Amino acid sequence: xxxxxxxxxxxxxxxxxxxxxxxxxxxxxxxxxxxxxxxxxxxxxxxxxxxxxxxxxxxxxxxxxxxxxxxxxxxxxxxxxxxxxxxxxxxxxxxxxxxxxxxxxxxxxxxxxxxxxxxxxxxxxxxxxxxxxxxxxxxxxxxxxxxxxxxxxxxxxxxxxxxxxxxxxxxxxxxxxxxxxxxxxxxxxxxxxxxxxxxxxxxxxxxxxxxxxxxxxxxxxxxxxxxxxxxxxxxxxxxxxxxxxxxxxxxxxxxxxxxxxxxxxxxxxxxxxxxxxxxxxxxxxxxxxxxxxxxxxxxxxxxxxxxxxxxxxxxxxxxxxxxxxxxxxxxxxxxxxxxxxxxxxxxxxxxxxxxxxxxxxxxxxxxxxxxxxxxxxxxxxxxxxxxxxxxxxxxxxxxxxxxxxxxxxxxxxxxxxxxxxxxxxxxxxxxxxxxxxxxxxxxxxxxxxxxxxxxxxxxxxxxxxxxxxxxxxxxxxxxxxxxxxxxxxxxxxxxxxxxxxxxxxxxxxxxxxxxxxxxxxxxxxxxxxxxxxxxxxxxxxxxxxxxxxxxxxxxxxxxxxxxxxxxxxxxxxxxxxx
Length: 578
Description:
578 residues; mainly alpha; globular; two-stranded antiparallel sheet; Serine Threonine Protein Phosphatase 5, Tetratricopeptide repeat; 8% strand
């Protein structure tokens, strides 16, 4: 018995030794913290890499929110239960529970965490490893990247916790409430991020494509001030009665920097959305992508935010999401070359190849919306038919064009997923100039705004022969006369229309409507009309009968349920959500 006890003690001791040895073995596949912080350049690269760490259920370009939440498009896919995005397009059933909201919140804070770690690394080792000049530039870049993620969070969720490098170093993340700062104070913090970037960054960067520069920071500063200039985000306190002229002047100040920079309008509107032009003069800042043939990886650094959005039956795995609405198509109608402001949506219409029709269209329609009988992304061999819609009785027959390359260019995919090497524009030059025109109008400088808008319309008029010559007989577009801008009200209407036509399907429409304080009237009217949509005798969109947008609640998306209850009582929900 005694020898048996000795054996047990010996085995126990051996087991404890083995356990201690196991604990002391560094885990594989994990970067040693001290080593990582000693390499600031790699930490900055990691923060940049997070820009493209997206997926269809947490797309950083926010298309399910900025587009589906607007009058520009329908969800698409295999039906209303395909993904959790259906509540985002009808609003009335939106709650805090969709996993997509939680995933987006979490992933954006992961990106912020990378930025915080990079800042700590730069503070401790930046000058030593990179030199004073480069270290200062990298710090500016990281502030830009952190501001970028915070802008998206603030745009989506309004009340968010501010987690910076100090909170990170003190390990106080789970003690930081989303009510610590007001919406306006949070915006001031985001603005400060971009001011730090603006002051630290050069106007042009020569040591690597895709890096932030002073012009990109100026664009973000203009966007922040434009958002705040209209009010606090809720409809009752947003709109023309709440305009802050000092903020509008800031928009003009910072867009002046962009207007006098190396950036400019690309000559042809269609070229903007082809991968071979993705870093053209139009691209002020964009999330970079690549094909596997370009970077020698398994399937490239593709744009996975848009992986659902390829056309059904054209791509190997096109899932047919992000479907343009009939209302959007109608908005491209022209009469004597100008938009049909009053009666554009009185009747539904669409062009059909080979059929003569008195109705004419803004040429940007054919670059933005794929329609049956017309070539898909300019290629005759891939002409769309009625069979290129996955669920036409629910979502109709239109398809989105901007976020996909030409079919002949091929695709990058893994298993049953498609993906494309299409950059995601954060700012393109035209977007910034439209922000400038918006501010100029509210400051009474309407003639300057007319010049900007007419320059954009002239580019659209010049964007027919190269890519859409087959639609030339359908196109008619004219410039605005001075009389169309002789009051703020007339100028404002034309600016808003131009922004919709130019930026359609680029994830901004809902946020524009919210900024202007007109989301409820616009969307609720849209729901009533769109549920009666019909194409070639096929009715669709009937699910909009259940849609309703509630002002005073729906302006912002709810704080995700999982975040509210991860640390109970730490976060507060946005008003009028449960």
